[in-house]
Amino acid sequence: MPLSVGDKIGHYEVISLLGQGGMGEVYRARDTKLKREVAVKVLPEAFARDPERMTRFQREAEVLASLNHPNIATIHGVEDRALVMELVEGNSPKGPLPFDEAWKIASQIVAALEYAHEHSIMHRDLKPANIMITPEGVVKLLDFGLAKACSNQREPSASPENSPTLTLGATEVGVILGTAAYMAPEQARGKAVDKRTDIWSFGVVLYELLTGERLFTGEDAAETLAAVIHKQPDLAKVPRQARRLLEECLQKDPKQRLRDIGDAKRLLGVETPVEPAVATTPSQFRLGWLWPGVAALVTVALATLAFVHSREKPPADPERVRFPLLLPDKAAYGQTLSVSPDGRRVVFSATTEGGTRLWVRSLDSLDSRPLAGTENAYGSPFWSYDSRFIVFGLGGKVRKVDASGGPPQTLCDLPGTLRGGFWTRDDRIVFASDNSGLLQVAAAGGAASPVTEYDPASQGYHTYPALLPDERHFVYLRRGVADASGIYLGSLDRKPKEQSLKRLLADASTPAYVPSPGTGNGHILFVREGSLMAQPFDERRLEFAGDAVPIAEQISPQGQYAASSGALVYASGSAGQRHLAWYDRQGKPAGTIWNPGEYNELTLSPDGTQVALVAAPTGSGDIWTYEFVRGASTRVTLTFGVQPIWSPDGSRIMFRSLSSGNGLYVISASGAGNQELLLKTNFPATPKDWSRDGRFLLYEESNPKTRSDLWALPLQGERKPFVFLNSAFDERNGKFSPDGRFVTYLSNESGKDEVYVSSFPSSTGERWSISSGGGYQPRWRRDGKELLYLTADGKLMSVDVTLTPTFKAGPPKVLFQPPIYGGGTVNQTRWDIAPDGQKFIINTVTGEAASSLTVVLNWQAGLKK
Fold first, then answer.
1. Which pLDDT does position 479 carry in this prediction?
2. Could you report how far apart the first and last alpha carbons of the chain are, in Å?
3. Active-site residue numbers?
4. What is the rounded CA–CA span in Å between residue 160 and residue 165?
């Protein structure tokens, strides 16, 4: 019996009837708990009398609710014999449509099916009635797997093209699942089905979108099924560019049919158009609302890009088109970005009130979409060759995520911070870390193996590899040693020790390689003195074929840019400019220190009269000191150094040298004399603290085959280092308590970094959890009465503690939110607290809250002249 307005199912109140069919009625309803509107599909009353079927329905609904994809309508839950779903406003697609418009719809169907198939879930009932297009152009697939979960109807319908699902059971051979006009032959015969059944239905739907006609028809469902089984599809009315795809989708023998729906794009005869963005988070301006000039400019830009992609030969004089890439509302740019190889989307990191994560922006939209599962991602992400997946670093692991959404997958361990990479067509992922040479791992995951040999004493670290079109050679940056830094050419065919040591360029810049279609040559991109340069490169001879020319000016100090053949995106302006600034405990500015510059991690001297920090005022990252009273700065190291740590008496500085091999080094705080090796280590080691009594050093060691662990080095007696904290997780960023009896540190055992405290020197005693929801960069107040740390969204937290007779901690409370460089989530400490505990020195980002990002389409125009 149909429901009436005001009737309730659970806590859902019926508003109106949306539709009805063989699978029951669908109502618009109000969720009285969450105050939102939903769609409620009420199944036929016969279901309630079939306990076996209802059990299966409940079980299958739980599986389907796990699907998380922007092109699949979300299932919120089950109430009695009703399925509660996302309310999707819009209309089902109808043909005939122009090819480009039809493919915009079909490509989103492909993305949804591919995601579901990767999770071993089939739709089983794909038809236009189960496809909805929102007013924004977003495709949503409905009733995923519902036929399997519910239906048990044996009688064929008199309306075959819109017949209810025909079902004789759940999954057994001999069972018919699906709607007659869109069934695959094996489905119509009642044989076993798999994902290729969905691929057949996709082909039938695409045919209908292109022609406006149904491919298989009959007087009733029985005649339609006969046509499906026996009639050969006639594709004469289909546009030529879609025929090969449809031929492979509509093979009656599933063994001859297209095996993976993700291969659909490959079989098209032309480049596919830009996919509409799936926008869930508003940007600063809406298209056609507050900024009509930008909307018009984006429209012109996309028309230009589509015109170039729709021809085999580009126009004789293509014009460059520039427009700003707007960040999400109230977001700070996270200093990393990457353009998809097809030039249609950009991934970048940004920090909002919800923390730091990756965002995807389609260039045909002013909106960006956050990628679920990338919260607190760090380093430089990159794309798969087919622009489907994004590779990123999180929690000491290399991970990949579908750019359209879905849960991330872990690939391998990450020894340090991800510094770019590439994905080959034979499914190898080559990636970089700041604690190793280049590494490679299978796209399906596994153990990583070296591609280049890491020798910090002679080469520095290897980062930002970019693949050449031959799929064998690549360019990458070696950085760390002045006379060896630069851009090099590598080969996947060579062993790590056999890689060439010849520099292509001496510029210590992130390189990129972009082919020039139809020329056999391309351009190597790099940054030189704030200008983005492009230098012609012969892909066959593997050598430069001309001089470098500037293509963009005022690139941000970090040289942040990304490029494909069709699109260039770069960060410019004053973003990234950093000051050393004092703040009081209420978060009020209390003066700046030194000049603006490229500052990184820092630490105050024991007496608080000066600061040691990593700075690059001359273009290289070295350790400097700055005295507050005299306003004098001193360069302490002459080679790349990181993480300065003061000795208890303030006379020396311990650090990690990126140019002298693995180990801990010390040097006079005045810069006089040479650096001395304090401890040689097997793997990259970063100093973290020096106990106040001078008895121990605490350092972090990153083993590429395991994880980051905390080690201690006694400075008395035998001086034999020992592991203080190690486990199956990362232990990082340790700091001694003032009395030396405890260590605060980070561990990602919960899935994200949190702050803990453990006894020292034995870690087998009691342990205390300090943060909840993410904690980073912990420090003790000098009197031992306070522990401070940063949250994922950059808030400075204070925890009252006592150290005697044993450790006790109070609840965390917010002090203020400092404008700290890079946010709180990096594994470098970019702030410190004064000895009196009343003010903080912070590496502060000044000026605009985010960099200015610029998109340039047809950026190679004029470079061939």
1. 76
2. 75
3. 125
4. 10
Burial class (CB in 10 A: 0-12, 13-18, 19+), 34: exposed
Q: Going by C-beta distance under 8 Å and a sequence separation of 6 or more, which residues neighbour residue 472?
A: 491, 492, 493
Domain boundaries, the chain: 1-87, 92-273, 371-508, 578-845
The pair of three-digit structure tokens given for residue 762, joined into one six-digit string: 């034995």
CATH number of 1-87: 3.30.200.20
Distance of CA 271 to the CA centre of its chain: 25
Neighbours of 296 (CB within 10 A): 13
CB count within 10 Å of CB 259 equals: 14
Domain 1-87 and domain 371-508 have a common topology: no
Distance CA 54, CA 60 (A): 10
Q: What is the CATH number of domain 578-845?
A: 2.120.10.30
Query: How far is 292 from 297, CA to CA, in rounded Å?
Result: 9
Instruction: Report whether 344 contacts 355 (CB < 8 A).
Output: no
Residue with tokens 């279901």: 47
Pairing of strands 610-615, 622-627: antiparallel
pLDDT band at 289 (very low <50, low <70, confident <90, very high): very low
Nearest CA to 534 out of 523, 545, 521, 542 is that of 523
Which residues pair with residue 735 across a beta bridge? 744
Instruction: At 131, list the tokens.
Output: 């496809």
Secondary structure (DSSP) of 342-390: TSSEEEEEEEETTEEEEEEEETT-S-EEE-TT-TT-EEEEEE-TTS-EE
Q: Please give the Cα distance from 665 to 677 (Å, whole number).
A: 5
- Contact (Cβ atoms closer than 8 angstroms) between residue 476 and residue 465: yes
Residue 196 is predicted with a pLDDT of 95
Q: How confident is the model at residue 613 (pLDDT cuts 50, 70, 90)?
A: very high
Give the separation between CA 172 and CA 256, rounded to whole angstroms. Answer: 23
Stretch (H or E) spanning 734: strand 731-736
Quick check: 742 and 760 in contact, CB under 8 A? yes
Q: Facing residues of 27 across strands? A: 17, 40
Which of 457, 794, 415 has its CA nearest to residue 658? 457
Q: In whole numbers, what is the pLDDT of the chain averaged over residues? A: 82
Q: How many CB atoms lie within 10 A of CB 77?
A: 15
User: Encoding tokens for residue 738?
Assistant: 């003032």
Instruction: Please give the pLDDT value at position 170.
Output: 31
pLDDT attached to residue 824:
67
At the second CATH level, the architecture of 92-273 is Orthogonal Bundle (1.10)
Lowest-confidence range among 42-46, 515-519, 658-662, 841-845? 658-662
Q: Which two tokens stand for residue 826?
A: 């990096």
